[in-house]
Amino acid sequence: MKKQFYTLLLVLIVSIVQAQNKLPFQLEKQWETAGFSNPESVVLDTENNVLYVSNVNGTPTDKDGNGYISKVSLEGEILEKKWASEGLNAPKGLAIYKGKLYAADIDKIVEIDIKSRRVSTHEIPDATFLNDVSIDKKGNVYVSNTFGFSAIYRLPARGNRKLEKWIEGDQLYMPNGLYTTSKYLYAAGWGNNLNPETYETKEQGFLYRIDLKSRNVEIVSKPIGNLDGLSQTLHGFLLTDWLKGELLYYSTQQGTVISVLDLPKGSADTYFDKNSKTIYIPLMMDNKIMSYQLKK
């Protein structure tokens, strides 16, 4: 009797673990397009039904004037390889708000009017490695500084639009991917105690969130890896581990992290379109963009 009880208990535990680790979706590959130059980020322009892809085109910290942004169809066709290149060095994170495309570029935010392609810049003299961009519903622009020191800057939506260092400190674990909701700024950390030669860290990064009003930091997940891309889905978040080359899923309900796809090293800043349930993934080292659709 005792043996039967422990057997049933073991079966129950295994069933619970399997249920927690089960994905609420399946991924179906749509397309894969090559021909980019170290693509780091992708964003969907919902008004014009096209994608924009940032191309570092060289070393991520070099002010060499080589960077550019590509315009791509939703079917993966490169419509304009160098749709924008003026004033760009090594553009990374992208975000769109009311007809303006914002790109993080080493120590400045580049603002591009999508219709006219007119470029303006917002300099951040003390920044060392601006990385991802996210915009809240009011139009405030947030940008992460990953390497050199951990910080997040904010460009206000109104007024004189003076950039401020919104939050700084090791508690940010070298913030990379950003995502804003009505109440929080979510961030994917790279980690702490960096090896400058390999970019590995002694302490792995995790998902956390910052209250937009109080700026209090709250850890959401366990340590995961050297995180880059961060996109919210219907049930949680999709993240990429840049060094491992992996797409991960964090379940908000279960609080668990599951590996979704094995990808090459350099899987970077993703974009998830909730309407079509499509995830776009830049492969920075392979010069490709991949598209997958989430299906039940």
Describe the model:
It contains one helix and 26 strands. The N and C termini lie far apart (41 Å). Helices cover 6% and strands 49% of the residues. A four-stranded antiparallel β-sheet has the order 1-26-25-24, with no helix packed on it. It is globular, with a radius of gyration of 20 Å. By secondary structure, the protein is mostly beta strands.
Structure described in brief:
The chain is mostly beta strands and 296 residues long. It has one helix spanning 2-20, and strands at residues 26-34, 39-45, 50-55, 68-73, 78-84, 94-97, 100-105, 108-113, 119-123, 130-135, 141-145, 151-155, 164-168, 175-180, 184-189, 191-194, 201-204, 207-211, 217-219, 227-232, 236-241, 246-251, 257-262, 271-273, 278-283, 288-295.
